[in-house]
Every structure is written in C-alpha cells, then in structure tokens.
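Hi U.,

Before I forget, here's the chain from the pilot set. I'm dumping it here mostly so it's searchable later in email.
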Amino acid sequence: MALIVQKYGGTSVGTTERIKNVAKRIARFKKEGHQLVVVVSAMTGETNRLIGLAKEIQTTPDPRELDVVVSTGEQVTIGLLSMALMEQGVKARSYTGQQVRILTDNSHTKARILKIDEDSIRQDLDDGHVVVVAGFQGVDEAGNITTLGRGGSDTTGVALAAALRADECQIYTDVDGVYTTDPRIVPEARKLDRITFEEMLEMASLGSKVLQIRSVEFAGKYKVKLRVLSSFQEDGEGTLITVEEDSSMEQPIISGIAFNRDEAKLTVLGVPDRPGIAYQILGPIADANLDVDMIIQNVGYDGTTDFSFTVNRSEFDNARAVLEQVKTHIGAREVVGDKSICKVSAVGVGMRSHPGVASRMFRTLAEEGINIQMISTSEIKISVVLDEKYLELAVRVLHKAFELDQVS
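Structure:
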C-alpha cells in the first residue's frame, strides 16, 4: 500500500463526464489498497471566466478580492469530484485550501506556501477516505484567501506530497509526459522516460508549460518522487522526474528545447556608468514585485551604458512605467521596449561534459539567418532572445541539430 498524491489539471476535469472518468481512475487506485490525496484545478476556462467577471467590475481588480473570486473555481471541482467518488462507492471528503490550512504569505495572486497542516488529512486517510483538495489556493496568517498564480495546483500537489511524505506525486494533464520540445511545433519530438529535477527546473523556467516552476522547486528540495502522466490514457509510465542523473547510459548532450513567447525586452539608454547604477534600475523593479529574467549591460566610451533586461510580456507596461520614473532619477536618456521577442533555450546536464554546445547552437541559427539579440547561459542551459517571428523555425532547426528526434 502506498500513499499517493494525484493532481488533475483543468482539462482533466473540464466537464462532468471527465470528472466521472477521473473518479473511476481514482477508484481503481483505491481498490488496489492505496491511500489517495487528490488535488484538482478549476474546470477548463473557469478561472479565465472569473477573471473576466472581475474585470467587468474593476478594470484592475483589487488583488485581495480577485483571490476571493478566482478561488471559487477549484471549490466547485472538489465538490463535484467528491460526489463522483461517492457514486463509485468510495468514501471522499473535500477541502479548500483554507480548510486544510495551506498557510501562505500575503502576496495576493502569487502567494508562496509557507506551511501545511496535514493532521486532518491524515485522519481522513486513516478512516479510509480519499481526500480531495482544492489546488491553487491557501490562506495567510490573517485568514485572507490567497492564490498561488497560474499553474499553482501543481505546487499544491507537490507541497502536499512533501508534507505527507507521500510515496509518489502524480501530475495528470493533457499530455503523456515531458517531451524534447512541443510536438505541435516539432512532430518528431520524443517523450522522455526520465529527466532530472535540474533539467526540468530549467525547462519550466524557460517556457515549458508541463509543470509550474515552483512545483519542480518543491519536488527537488524535498526529494518528492514526481511523475507526469496523461489523464486521457489508461496505460503508460509517463515521465519520471528524478533527483539524480541516469548513470546507466551515456547522458545525451541536450535533453530538450524550451521556448517562451511571453517575453518582452526593455532598454534604458544613456545610463550614467557609475557604481550602483544596476541597483538603482532594478531595485524599483523588484519593489514593484516584477520579475526580471535576462540582463545585459553594454558599456560605451562616452561614460554611459545601455541597460537591457527581459520581463514577462504581461508585466511590460508596469515595468516600463517604473523605468520612466527611474530614468529621470538617474539621468538616463530614454526608455525603449520591444514586445515582439521570444526566448529559445537548449537544456541538458550533458553540457557539463560536452564542449561546443554554444557554438553549434549559434552556428545553426546563423545558417538560418536568425539574429540573436541576447544570450544567457548556466551550467546546463543556453538561452537566446530572438525576434518572435523566428520562434518555430529556431525550435525546429535546433531540435534537429542536437539530434533530439533520434532514440538514444
């Protein structure tokens, strides 16, 4: 008998018929003797519908009240799934994030989990219940409902698995595992049997939509055995995300090509070249709770520098407004921006022992006439910023150049 945490995404519970199918799957696991905690998202499109309602009332919804509104989507799903399980003859009990007491900080719309009180869950498991928990939400110290940001149900699932010391956390979604890249762009993309937490963390941060980045961080930190599976297939092992590299065979140089369309670039021109100027620019950006990705500083010969960085496209306008104020304060010349960029990345732990990855990547792009605007590297990834119109071409040629379509 194992303690398993399962998470089902919005597409998996998108209709009452799909909820019934999920209940049948859970019932089979229960009959095998396993203890089950199930985390669910809102039904497909429900969160967007609720956000739309909020924006009909307030153009920029109050973050606290927006959390109150959007958290109701998961509350509907947990109730429906618990009813469906009861129809299968399975004892079930639903919990909102507040009822479990998933304690978070007070950063509304993108809160972070601090602690989980698992006592009531354990008691229900011991009594033979399947425990159904609302993903994506929690509560702060003051009792305010909070949400964890897009994809937050993944984080809820992994955090519960860590708190309960579960034998495995299974993430059920509309894909049957982690692929070398998006099969919609490269039909030859292969499903990976396994990938390291390190690689998955990079791929999640670089645009892979399979798992939310914080869920991978949680899993790696607490060594949660994590598996990605399809809720629409009965069989299949999915992709296992592991702590250690697979030493049983030669590690491929590159495991995958990730990309992100939701990028925007901002540049502050004519910045005085003096100590502390980077902090004077990025400090106010951080104070506005805006995340910065790639950073480049080009030092000129006239005592000034151009300072560029990328942000999520949805935060472009807010970041630019902050920089317009910073520009006057530091005496810079101008702030310019570009929303028509993308980021493409090659990821693989094999880079550590194989030189020449960057040169192959840059040569491949140059042969296609694709100009690189920015470059960022780490020990196991190389990222480039390109004009968005080249995204699909870049992904296809890099996937082929690193022979990711070939079975290792």
